[in-house]
Amino acid sequence: MPRPPAGACRCGGAVRARAAAVPRRGPALVDAGRYVEARDETPEARQRPLDVRAARRTRPVDDARRHPSTRRCAAAPLPGIGSPAPPSRMTATDMPPDIARLTPEGALARLDADAGGLTEDEARRRLARVGPNRVEAAAQQSLALRLLNEFVHFFALILWVAAGLAFVAEAYDPGQGMRELGFAIVGVIVVNGVFSFWQEYRAEQALAALRSLLPQQVQVLRAGRPATVEAETLVPGDLILVAEGDKVPADCRLLEAHGLRVNTATVTGESAAVPRGAEPCAETHPLAASNLLLAGTLVVGGSGRALVFATGMHTEFGRIAHLTQAAGETASPLQREIARVSRLVALLASGLGVVFFFVGQAIGLPFMANLMFAIGIIVANVPEGLLPTVTLALALATQRMARRNVLVRHLPAVEALGSTTVICSDKTGTLTQNRMAVRRVWNAGAWQEPAAPASDALYAIARHCHELRPAADGTLHGDPMELALVEWATPAGSAAGPVEHPDAFTFDTERKRMSVIVAAGDGRQLLCKGAPETVLPLCTHADAGAGLLQPLDAAGRAALVRAQETMADAGLRVLALAWRAFAATAAPAESGLVLAGLIGLEDPPRPDVAEAVTRCHAAGVRVIMVTGDHPHTALAIAREIGLVRGRRPTVLRGTDIARCTPAQLQQALAPAEVVCARVTAEQKLLVVEALQRRGEVVAVTGDGVNDAPALKRADIGIAMGRTGTDVAKEAADLVLLDDHFASIVNAIEEGRAVYENIRKFLTYILSSNIPEIVPYLAFVLLRIPLPLTIIQILAVDLGTDMLPALALGAERPHAGLMRVPPRPRHERLLNLPLLARAYGFLGVLEAAVALGTYALVLHGAGWQWGAALAAHDPLYRQATTACLAAIVVTQMANLFLCRHPREPAHRFGLGGNRLLPLGLATELLAILAIVYTDLGNRLFGTAPLPAAVWGHAALGALAMYALEEGRKAWVRRRPG
């Protein structure tokens, strides 16, 4: 295999796609699952700025969203070195565009550094100029201000006005209960504000989690001598020493590398470790240059010496942190709908209050009576218990979801997930197990299953040819691919073989292979593994099975190439394993090898992912894979789990996404089957935003640092609990405790149930508004004593109705909920059918029963039309108590009627919802306490009722029940 030309990037990797010669098409897309490797590898594509939005949008890009590493800078020493700059500013430094292309000596010169490291004085001077090597926090609104905001939104302002009017009325006409009303309304404001603040408050620990991924101390060279310093004190120009197991503390240019391999999953999402070397590289993209180490990544093999060129927020790690900060919170559909309902109801209440105040003035009501009347209209129309009930219902849903291994960090996310139309899922660790495994084996000229016995030579190479190191507990640590080979080749209970290889040819980016020399019988053997293109040319024979060897002729080599391509097309990473008897000769050690076989490895899918994807499809939820891995690998996994079933899926590379205009990207994401591969953190953000512009409710899953910006920007962010980084968890709304993609489907079902339940208790709460308003209309229009006092209205809204409404919020998902598509994004929580049912039917029936019971008490006591009744008159107190009791009794019947808008109430038993009987019992006990205790009589202006009044209210409730069940039956019989 010829070596790359001078200056070319000798990137590692077992297999490259075969379609590099296919002519490049436009930015839109690769069809039929075929790829053009050159599209991701061309210098033009690689040299594009990371912030592709600046190049492809016609409108200006907010500079707060752009990091300096996304723009090209002049070939000059870092501004942070050459001139002072505030360390907190994002514009202080850029990555020199050609630092990867320079020789180690050139890189040192570019940063005005020395091969022996900086002196302590120079390091201090640079630290003062560029600032500490840490992720800076973005300015945020203080907690006190955020809490204050919960008490000054429109819904709260209406209640503040009502409370203020109540206190004014108390001052002008004491003894009417207005002071108690004022305090009750203030209590409602406080409860709503605290609940809302608690559900909106999120402990912003993403930055602390980002810092935890960076090492606290690091080995550096200072003035030619090794030293241990705090990672925060690193500056551009420092020389650091890295070895297996180290976390990289800053963005660095390698000067020396000895078998160095790095796991970059935290910033790229790619599952396999990648080799890194010190040779100049033509690549300028920091995520792809083979001689750069990025902050936050992990060294899994080898050692090296590197030159720091970017620290803190100027690193690629810092860029992702900045994107996470800039990706502001997205209001959930439920939050938007509750805000809309609050504004609508508040405007309606205020409007009615003002209108009826002027009506009262026109008909000659005294000012104070008219003011109390207007306040009563406002209070009767504002469902004070709505926000606390919504919050408590969501909290109950989180408990149910926790039992299904889903931890909710953000309450509105529960419902938002239920309305999700698209899931953008990461591959590594989400759909797959985040560990490599042997999937295909080519041995003795034939395919065989991984579980089938292979040749002794193949097993020996897999067990012994590695650079793994033992931990204190005896387990091996290092490259996941080598761990998979050892696990495959080592029988259960057996040792993994020697881990110290004094005679070894380490892996590097030029050779793309490694060899070890081990004892074998009376002699020694050289065992070799690596990329087929570098191992096969060294082989002269092949293992033919049964201990026989055969010359490797042209036909044999062609068969090997076909086997290699078959595994590559399946998205596997292919390794060639070979050996030879070793003797010290003048010939090169790695020559005259015997090919033992080819092995294909893959990060396998989770066992239950395929079923979960099927359930998503049945529920009308589209799943789009968005990964940093190779398109071959991504498409192979997508087909295996059923995410892709058609022959011509849409496969988008990161470069495709970067080149598309917003409109083109929306169109590109329209097909049913889409896979996005080789995607960076910012490109993943672009995918999420494009889907949201299409009107989709987007859920994003992920586990790495690179996923955090998209997790935060999405309508719903879902992080992995076991394998996910702290950054991903803190940026997410939900955390999957078991890391199972299937748990997302369970969460969607719960989310859909939450939305339905909110509609149920919204119908229940709003139904009682009409019997609270109608008495005030009767008071004005019919000139009768006010049938219901304001404090009694609050007794219903904040007392008897609260727990039953909460019981409706705890209803379990009904059968068939996951066999219907997500509701349209434009569908309103408070829509016309709900209002018609609550206000126009159920509420009217309740009002009729309440006023009828009120009139029954007055008529039974001999009251004459037009006669006045004082507020403390026992008859008046008993009549208003009868009206209140009738509302409560009809609401008890309404509790069963609201369990489903179409199905009969008798189909839903009490066993599935333990809160329902508790809510009924509490409602009954509350009204009895209000009616028959001295404290209840004093607080609510009530009086004891005779049994006949309860019987009348019960008959009215039965009539209401029968009429609503009749309406449901009529609706079910209607066509469509």
Automatic annotation (TrEMBL):
It is a multi-pass membrane protein. It is found in: Cell membrane. It comes from the Bacteria. The keyword Membrane applies. Residues 57-89 are annotated as: Disordered. One of its GO terms (cellular component) is plasma membrane. Gene3D superfamilies: Calcium-transporting ATPase, cytoplasmic domain N, Calcium-transporting ATPase, cytoplasmic transduction domain A, Calcium-transporting ATPase, transmembrane domain, HAD superfamily/HAD-like. Pfam families: Cation_ATPase (PF13246), Cation_ATPase_C (PF00689), Cation_ATPase_N (PF00690), E1-E2_ATPase (PF00122), Hydrolase_3 (PF08282). GO terms for molecular function: ATP binding; ATP hydrolysis activity; P-type ion transporter activity. Residues 57-66 have a biased composition (Basic and acidic residues). Belongs to the cation transport ATPase (P-type) (TC 3.A.3) family. Type IIA subfamily. This is Sodium/potassium-transporting ATPase subunit alpha. It comes from Plasticicumulans lactativorans.
